[in-house]
Design a protein that fits this description.
Elements (H helix, E strand, L loop, with lengths): L1 H31 L4 E2 L12 H6 L3 E7 L5 H12 L5 E8 L4 H9 L7 E7 L37 E5 L3 E3 L3 H5 L9 E3 L9 H6 L15 H4 L14 E5 H6 L2 H15 L4 H4 L4 H7 L5 E2 L19 H5 L3 E3 L14 H5 L20
Helix pairs in contact: 9-11
Length: 362
C-alpha cells in the first residue's frame, strides 16, 4: 500500500512537470509570434498624446500615413498640407518601421509640426513573410509599409473610422469634408474609381495608364477567371480611402487580402510590372463592387506617371487632393507640378532627406 502511494506521488509530480512544460512552450510561442505593431513609449516631452484620450473626442479626424526612412520628407509634407488647410482637430497615426521611429519623432518635434496630435505606430514586416515575393521591376513598391493599409484594424489604432493616405500626396481641401463622407450600408471603405474624372481621361490615355481590372489581373489564370469580375470594370487606386474599421473586421477583409497575397505568392496572378505594384490587386479583388465612391476631386492622381504631361492649372486649382502615384515623385527630378508639392515641404532637421533639383549654375 505504501509503495502504491509512493508511485502515485511520483506520477503526480510528473504530471505537474508536464503541465508546466506545456505552459512554458505556449508562452514562448506567443512571445515569438510576429506582432503587427508596437506602441512604443515616447519621451515625456514628446508631442504625442494617449490613444485613449484621442479616441474619446468625437470631433477628431484620424489620418493614417506611413513614414519610411527613405521618404520621410514626403510624409511630413502631406501632414503639413493637411493641417494648413483645415480648422478640424486632426490626429495622425504615423506608421513606420523600428529603424525610423527616432527619425520620425525628431522630424515632427524639431519642426513646425511639433504642435500636431500624433502617435507613432511601429509596423512589424515579419507579418509579410510568405506573402510578398521579390520583384525587380519596381522594388520601391515592395516596401513593407506599402502593405500597412491591409492591416489597419490590427494596428494600435483606437478610432473606428480613419482616412488612409499614401505619402506622395498633397491635400488642398478641408480634410474634414473627406472624413465626413457617408459610407453605404455594408461598405467598409470608400475609394475614387479610375473612370470617374472625364477631364483627366485624355491625360490618362496619353501616359498609358490602366483604368480597368484588365490592367491589374492576369485573366489567363483560372483563379482570376473564377472570380467572375468583368475585365472592363473600372479599377480604383487604394492610395486614398476612408475606412470603417468595425465593418472591415466584421467582413474579415484583412484575412481575405492575405489570402490573395498568398495566392499570388504561389501562382503569380499579378505582378508589380503588370499592375503598377502588388498592393493594388488584392484590394481590387476584395473590394470589387463593395465600396462607396469618393468625389473625384478628392483623388486627382497620376501626377507621377510622366515627367512631361501636365494637368491644366485651373483644373489643379479646384482639386482637393493631388496624388503623384507613379515613378516620378515631386521630391525628385524630373517631375511635374513641383510648385504645388514643394510649398508644403519642410526641410529635414537631420539633413537626411533632401530635394533633388537641377543645378542651374552648371
Amino acid at each position: 500500500m505504501a509503495l502504491l502511494r509512493k508511485i502515485n506521488r511520483i506520477l503526480l509530480v510528473l504530471l505537474v512537470l508536464m503541465v508546466c512544460l506545456l505552459l512554458r512552450s505556449t508562452l514562448l510561442r506567443a512571445s515569438t509570434r510576429p506582432r503587427l505593431s508596437e506602441n512604443r513609449k515616447s519621451p515625456k516631452n514628446s508631442g504625442q498624446v494617449s490613444l485613449e484620450h484621442a479616441a474619446e473626442a468625437h470631433d477628431v479626424v484620424p489620418v493614417v500615413i506611413c513614414a519610411s526612412e527613405e521618404r520621410m520628407g514626403a510624409s511630413m509634407a502631406t501632414i503639413n498640407s493637411i493641417i494648413s488647410n483645415t480648422d478640424a482637430s486632426v490626429f495622425f497615426y504615423v506608421v513606420t518601421l523600428r529603424d525610423a521611429v527616432k527619425l520620425t519623432r525628431r522630424y515632427i518635434e524639431k519642426t513646425k509640426l511639433k504642435g500636431i496630435r500624433y502617435k507613432i505606430v511601429e509596423f512589424n514586416p515579419m507579418v509579410l513573410v510568405g506573402k510578398v515575393k521579390p520583384d525587380s521591376s519596381r522594388p520601391d513598391l515592395l516596401h513593407p509599409l506599402n502593405f500597412v493599409r491591409f492591416y489597419l484594424p490590427l494596428l494600435d489604432i483606437l478610432h473606428k473610422r480613419v482616412i488612409y493616405l499614401d505619402d506622395d500626396i498633397i491635400v488642398q481641401g478641408d480634410i474634414r469634408d473627406l472624413f465626413d463622407i457617408k459610407l453605404k450600408p455594408g461598405h467598409a471603405a470608400a475609394f475614387a474609381t479610375d473612370c470617374d474624372l472625364p477631364s483627366t481621361h485624355e491625360m490618362v490615355r496619353s501616359i498609358g495608364m490602366q483604368t480597368t481590372y484588365m490592367g491589374f489581373l492576369d485573366y489567363r489564370k483560372q483563379e482570376v477567371k473564377d472570380l467572375g469580375i468583368n475585365p472592363s470594370d473600372c479599377s480604383f487606386n487604394p492610395g486614398v480611402f476612408v475606412a470603417d474599421l468595425n465593418e472591415w473586421k466584421k467582413q474579415k477583409i484583412t484575412k481575405e487580402l492575405e489570402k490573395w497575397m498568398e495566392e499570388n505568392f504561389r501562382q503569380n496572378i499579378y505582378s508589380s510590372a503588370m499592375a503598377g505594384g502588388v498592393a493594388t490587386p488584392p484590394m481590387l479583388i476584395v473590394f470589387h463592387d463593395k465600396y462607396t465612391i469618393l468625389d473625384p476631386v478628392w483623388h486627382v492622381r497620376h501626377l507621377g506617371w510622366s515627367p512631361d504631361v501636365h494637368y491644366p492649372e485651373n483644373f489643379l486649382q479646384g482639386a482637393h487632393l493631388l496624388h503623384w502615384n507613379g515613378p516620378f515623385k515631386p521630391w525628385n527630378y524630373p517631375a511635374v507640378h513641383l510648385d504645388r508639392w514643394e510649398k508644403w515641404f519642410i526641410p529635414d532637421p537631420s539633413g537626411r532627406f533632401s530635394l533633388e533639383r537641377p543645378d542651374h549654375d552648371s
